[in-house]
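Entry 14. Ran structure prediction on the chain below.
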Amino acid sequence: AFTDTYKPEDAKALLEGAGWTMGADGFWVNPEGEVPEVRWMVNTGNTRRENTQEFLIPKLAEAGFKVVADNCEALPCVFETRLPALDYDMGMYINTVAPDPRTYGCDQIPTEENGFQGQNSTGWCNEEATELLIAADAELDEAARIAEVQGVLSLMAEDHMMLPLLQFPNIGAI
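Output, structure tokens:
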């Protein structure tokens, strides 16, 4: 979904069209006159993620985005406190979920009202995708289920709700 989509000039035009300007310090300034600070959360001690931040944060600054590392330990901070509270702007974490993708439904977003239950820690809500997920969850016809899940994946790509880097296998069967 992200092949050949890196187009800095298009991104600049989109920001400027929405009223953003480039500040004297090299950071994008929103229409309210503020430079947003993006808090990027990873769990401390994970050198792959911390090295990714170390590599990308300066590159994001060169592109005009003020991104800061806002890390804490995996347990209880990241996985028991901050993810369920959606207390981050950008996160990098392993998301091993059940084989069914229903996790990304609007009804799976943790909120105060539901006691911060649900595994949709991205906070992404797309009603059309939720309907497809519910249908796929009950679908017995393999071809129909594949089409429903592919429809959800297309909506995820359209909304740019995440950049999946790698899915580690978490289930083995003999």
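Strands lie at 21-22, 28-29, 37-41, 66-69, 90-91. Will compare against last week's run tomorrow.
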